[in-house]
DNA sequence: ATTCTAACA
DNA sequence: TGTTAGTA
């Protein structure tokens, strides 16, 4: 498939897909026309890239990790013991990050619950859609 | 109509 | 990362 379809399938801008290639995250073949030619597996690959990027990993690390993963029946499997150090380091960093997020969420929830609700005159006719505040759901 | 490269009011 | 210009 060409870049347009991959962009549509993944929701990632073509500009970004080209950037990922520049960062060695994707290696599409080139057609005689010069157009990039992606394979079906690239759809999943882009999703993984997005996930790792969102988790805070830099492109160089992702570029090292992706080629060292093997798709198994259920999920993924590692294949490069040399990367174990980096992997554990990232895993620890993310864990620390999650802990910070938890405290931040708890803090905001406390502030929200202690905040008096405003009572504006809703004469616009439209139904009032006051957003619900987090009610301490997860974990 | 699509994609490509390069560049930035 | 977005957007755009000028091509192929």
Automatic annotation (TrEMBL):
Domain HTH merR-type: 1-68
Keywords from the UniProt entry: DNA-binding
Gene Ontology MF annotations: DNA binding; DNA-binding transcription factor activity
Keyword DNA-binding applies: yes
Region (Disordered): 115-139
InterPro entries xrefs: DNA-bd_dom_put_sf, MerR-type_HTH_dom, MerR_fam
Record flagged with keyword DNA-binding: yes
Gene3D superfamilies (alphabetical): 1.10.1660.10
Name of the protein described by the UniProt record: DNA-binding transcriptional MerR regulator
């Amino acid at each position: 498939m060409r870049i347009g379809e991959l962009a549509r399938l993944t929701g990632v801008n073509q500009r970004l897909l080209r950037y990922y290639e520049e960062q060695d995250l994707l290696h599409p073949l080139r057609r005689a026309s010069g157009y990039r030619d992606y394979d079906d597996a690239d759809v999943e690959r882009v999703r993984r890239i997005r996930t790792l990027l969102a988790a805070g990993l830099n492109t160089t690390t992702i570029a090292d990790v992706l080629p060292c993963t093997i798709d198994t029946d259920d999920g993924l499997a590692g294949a490069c013991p040399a990367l174990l150090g980096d992997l554990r380091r990232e895993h620890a960093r993310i864990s620390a990050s999650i802990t910070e997020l938890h405290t931040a969420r708890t803090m905001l929830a406390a502030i929200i619950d202690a905040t008096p609700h405003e009572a504006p005159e809703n004469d616009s006719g439209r139904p009032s859609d006051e957003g619900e505040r987090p009610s301490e759901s997860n974990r």
